[in-house]
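To close the section, here is one more complete example, presented without commentary so you can practise reading it yourself. The ligand is L45E5XJ5.
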Amino acid sequence: MYSTDHLDIPPLASAGGTVQLPGSKSISNRVLLLAALSTGHTDITDLLDSDDTQVMLQALATLGCQVEHRSNGEVRVHGLGGTLPVKTAALFLGNAGTAMRPLTAALAVLASQHGGQFDLSGVARMHERPIGDLVDALRQLGCSVTYTLNDGYPPLRLGTGEPTELTIDAPIQIRGDVSSQFLTALLLTLPLAARTRDIHIDVAGELISRPYIEITLNLMQRFGVDVKRDEWKRFTIPAGSQYRSPGRIPVEGDASSASYFIALGAIAPCSPGCDGISIKGVGLASIQGDIRFIEAARLMGADLSGDASTLHIRRGAWPLKAIDLDCNHIPDAAMTLAVMALYADGPSTLRNIASWRVKETDRIVAMATECRKLGALVEEGPDFIRITPPASAEAWSAASIHTYDDHRVAMCFSLAAFNPAGLPVRIEDPKCVGKTFPDYFETLFEVCQTPPANIPVICIDGPTASGKGTLAAALAHRLGYHLLDSGALYRLVGLAAERAGLATDETALKAENQADRLGELASSMQVRFTGDHILLNEEDVTELLRSESAGMAASRVSAVPQVRSALLGLQHDFRQLPGLVADGRDMGTVVFPDAALKVFLTASASQRAQRRHKQLISKGFAANIDDLLADLIRRDERDSSRSHAPLRPAEDALQLDNSGLSIEQSIDQMLIWWQDKTAFPKV
Ligand SMILES: Nc1ncnc2c1ncn2[C@@H]1O[C@H](COP(=O)(O)OP(=O)(O)OP(=O)(O)O)[C@@H](O)[C@H]1O
Ligand SMILES: Nc1ccn([C@@H]2O[C@H](COP(=O)(O)O)[C@@H](O)[C@H]2O)c(=O)n1
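Output:
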């Protein structure tokens, strides 16, 4: 997951490949609660691992429900069978509506039955999301529910600590037109109270988001409770209902998350050698309502096929066709249509989406504001949004997309990177996707392509121990970019030469064919970078490479043109989405001459010797400061005087002498320079 401040997505050109979707959030959290309320244990496969499911798992653990993460990746929940081992608890539920609503209902009923008291709270936005209709329904049942901050909204206190009688004689009334999660919460809970008689739930008003209720009923049935439904008005929980574990239950891929990749297939030209986007984990037989997004995508022109558990999408009509659609049945996935509308042949209107206003943020306002930033004309109403795409390529703007702590806003707008103007898109706070799809951007980058020239590179060159590596790693971390420590490649060649018995001293290098042998060695060595570790022929040589003798050997082999040419392709391969920070001696002059930002980093020789001394001592290497100073002067001299790719600033490099700067100050300076190079408005 990208935990950076923002993520800059370069302009994207094409897409192709296969995406494996994470589990559905709606199914995951329902299954977790059902498993906890059941008798017996339930093994859940493909459970979504995200912020919202973590919140639910944590809450269940606090309530005394045993949850095991098994070695085969399954999660085993030991059901409580309607008991309540923990009688008081304070539960923090973040911004997870799929945890707050069902747990409110379940704990209110269990607290009444067994005597208990529970405090439920969340993030600030959760305290702005209405829950009054659910609370009113629970009070009809005789449950004690108290608002501890503002009437109608969490935080809540459930129960008094003492058992109280539940009133189940009359049908329970619940509003259906604000959030279907209120009805889901009651449906999931009331089998706990339907021991001796039927319980009826009557829906007041038009029930929205019905597909989510269908998921609820489907899953309840798998846990042994058959709810009778009369139209969408009355639901009856039969007397004697009791949840029983189905043993094992799979979670299908998230259909709402599929919408981004369906849209991607519809928007992006196919990458060479690819045949569109394949999605695994969810298909035409999905029980999730958002699977009907495929109908909307087809209306807009997507060429879409599939079977029970997979989907396949290619670009069909282009530009996409504008639509005017009632989106009540696909409230979450419909946000993706708003971004598809940016590529349509006219204005698109998405109707009946009033529920957007009470989601993670007011999504009508959010989508309208951010689409406008990109250059679209947007009209918004109480329950609709109309989007007119930018009139021409020139009308698009490079936008910094504010994401409102809303995972769907972040994911949708990544697709704006296919804009015809070839502009990058900045996604602020990309980690908000952790709510449902922590690896969304990594998955996107795996199936998207763009010419290397579109992928930004920051080069940091300079003499030894000037702080290049430190600065490059910090910048890559801050920007979510890949990192190339090119010096490590030369160090690897030095080490590989030593292992192969190839001498690298001056006399040996003058011998016939020695340079060719070293070049061949450099092209054939098996190198693997895994996290912070470097493997040479599968041996972890990370520590070995950092010694000063490895640095000197590197300096010798790096003067060999055959070695430098052999390593060129390997270095270019590091230029991957979303960007690269590369450090070395010739990054800006030879390897990435088109880099957007080139910095030549220097510091006085004595400063550098002191830094290196400190660094080596802290790693347990023996070091003498005078020897280090002499060595680094020798190394600089050799690196600067060689005929091939000598150490020198690129003509367009910015020079930074960091002798008097702290590491943080150097990073800040680089970030200022980088921001100046980007197309995004300054904040
Ligand atoms: N601005 C700075 N102020 C103080 N110490 C620094 C600064 N920059 C880097 N250092 C320290 O100097 C040491 C050497 O830095 P680093 O290894 O990043 O240099 P380098 O230029 O990559 O060297 P080499 O080219 O030999 O790999 C590190 O221990 C680092 O923490
Ligand atoms: N682009 C580069 C990077 C490094 N070298 C040579 O390798 C030696 C070791 O580099 P470190 O950055 O890891 O210290 C260095 O002294 C250079 O001779 C290079 O030539 N080009």
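Once you have examined the tokens, check your reading against these statements. The longest helix spans residues 97-114. Residues 464-470, 487, 551, 611-612, 615, 658, 661-663, 666 surround adenosine-5'-triphosphate (ligand 1) (CB under 6 Å).
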